């Protein structure tokens, strides 16, 4: 599941493959930009902004993409078979003489003017947990603007701080010893103050790791996420799962009923207890 750490890794791979090289092939397979041709232009850099990817191209252009649930960018050497999915799922191809970047299942793909339109695309985001704009005080102030909002929902709101997804939401709440349904304003002051830097620490720890880990233990990578009915790594109580969201966008949310006291719904039906797909 792409979250801030995964997107940061994707940006680094794309930057290493494309930056400083001239494009010899450009193919944007979305109707609005299907006739756009970037061939002959150099890629200047690729950077992550929260869960967004910005590929900046010579001539003041930015290719803005977002992976959401199952999008991906794959890098291939000349002659290597593309293997990220069927042909009809390809949304973008950018190639130089040495590498080809192929974007699969990208729900957001647009070519925009770097100076005029990047802010429209990502300017609404809060401080980026892995970015140069990180500011813990601003993130803390953003989270505190709606004290009645459920903590899990506030963490997922990219306008508060950018980079947290459903995995880190559940893991952060476990480390804070509260349920994701606790109103933000009821989080003890000391834990509220530590939240932004704890989130940053988790993402920084994982930005170079192929397998996400929040526990520091081998073979026991996550405390609660995806572990419904399995024993809590701290107390042995079976982990629970229930949906959290506004009805239109509910997400499976995991917690330990002993280590994380506070408000929580009844456990989800057995058929819905698996990890998010």
From TrEMBL:
<keyword id="KW-0326">Glycosidase</keyword>
<dbReference type="InterPro" id="IPR015887">
    <property type="entry name" value="DNA_glyclase_Znf_dom_DNA_BS"/>
</dbReference>
<dbReference type="InterPro" id="IPR012319">
    <property type="entry name" value="FPG_cat"/>
</dbReference>
<feature type="domain" description="Formamidopyrimidine-DNA glycosylase catalytic">
    <location>
        <begin position="2"/>
        <end position="79"/>
    </location>
</feature>
<dbReference type="GO" id="GO:0000703">
    <property type="term" value="F:oxidized pyrimidine nucleobase lesion DNA N-glycosylase activity"/>
</dbReference>
<keyword id="KW-0227">DNA damage</keyword>
<keyword id="KW-0234">DNA repair</keyword>
<keyword id="KW-0378">Hydrolase</keyword>
<dbReference type="InterPro" id="IPR035937">
    <property type="entry name" value="FPG_N"/>
</dbReference>
<dbReference type="GO" id="GO:0003684">
    <property type="term" value="F:damaged DNA binding"/>
</dbReference>
<keyword id="KW-0238">DNA-binding</keyword>
<dbReference type="Pfam" id="PF01149">
    <property type="entry name" value="Fapy_DNA_glyco"/>
</dbReference>
<dbReference type="InterPro" id="IPR044090">
    <property type="entry name" value="Nei2_N"/>
</dbReference>
<dbReference type="InterPro" id="IPR015886">
    <property type="entry name" value="H2TH_FPG"/>
</dbReference>
<comment type="similarity">
    <text>Belongs to the FPG family.</text>
</comment>
<dbReference type="InterPro" id="IPR000214">
    <property type="entry name" value="Znf_DNA_glyclase/AP_lyase"/>
</dbReference>
<keyword id="KW-0863">Zinc-finger</keyword>
<keyword id="KW-0479">Metal-binding</keyword>
<keyword id="KW-0862">Zinc</keyword>
<keyword id="KW-0456">Lyase</keyword>
<dbReference type="GO" id="GO:0006284">
    <property type="term" value="P:base-excision repair"/>
</dbReference>
<feature type="domain" description="FPG-type">
    <location>
        <begin position="223"/>
        <end position="261"/>
    </location>
</feature>
<keyword id="KW-0511">Multifunctional enzyme</keyword>
<protein>
    <recommendedName>
        <fullName>DNA-(apurinic or apyrimidinic site) lyase</fullName>
        <ecNumber>4.2.99.18</ecNumber>
    </recommendedName>
</protein>
<feature type="region of interest" description="Disordered">
    <location>
        <begin position="243"/>
        <end position="277"/>
    </location>
</feature>
<dbReference type="GO" id="GO:0008270">
    <property type="term" value="F:zinc ion binding"/>
</dbReference>
<dbReference type="GO" id="GO:0140078">
    <property type="term" value="F:class I DNA-(apurinic or apyrimidinic site) endonuclease activity"/>
</dbReference>
<dbReference type="InterPro" id="IPR010979">
    <property type="entry name" value="Ribosomal_uS13-like_H2TH"/>
</dbReference>
């Amino acid at each position: 599941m792409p979250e801030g750490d995964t997107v940061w890794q994707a940006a680094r791979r794309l930057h290493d493959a494309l930056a400083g090289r001239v494009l010899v092939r450009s193919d944007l397979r979305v109707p609005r930009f299907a006739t756009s041709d970037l061939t002959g232009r150099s890629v200047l850099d690729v950077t992550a902004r929260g869960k967004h990817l910005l590929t900046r191209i010579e001539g003041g252009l930015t290719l803005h993409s977002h992976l959401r649930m199952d999008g991906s960018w794959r890098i291939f050497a000349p002659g290597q078979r593309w293997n990220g999915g069927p042909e009809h799922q390809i949304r973008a191809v950018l190639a130089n003489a040495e590498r080809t970047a192929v974007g699969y299942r990208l729900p957001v793909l647009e070519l925009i003017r770097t100076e005029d339109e990047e802010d429209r695309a990502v300017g609404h985001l809060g401080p980026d947990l892995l970015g140069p704009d990180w500011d813990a005080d601003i993130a803390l102030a953003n989270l505190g603007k709606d004290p009645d909002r459920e903590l899990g929902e506030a963490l997922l709101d990219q306008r508060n701080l950018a980079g947290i997804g459903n995995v880190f939401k559940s893991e952060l709440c476990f480390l804070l010893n509260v349920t994701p349904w606790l109103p933000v304003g009821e989080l003890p002051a000391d834990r509220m103050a530590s939240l932004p830097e704890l989130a940053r620490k988790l993402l920084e720890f994982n930005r170079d790791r192929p397998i996400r880990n929040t526990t520091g233990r081998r073979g026991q990578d996550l405390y609660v996420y995806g572990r419904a009915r399995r024993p809590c790594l701290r107390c042995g109580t079976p982990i629970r799962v229930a949906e959290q969201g506004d009805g239109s966008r509910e997400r499976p949310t995991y917690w330990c009923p002993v280590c994380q006291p506070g408000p929580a719904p009844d456990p989800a039906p057995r058929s819905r207890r698996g990890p998010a797909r």
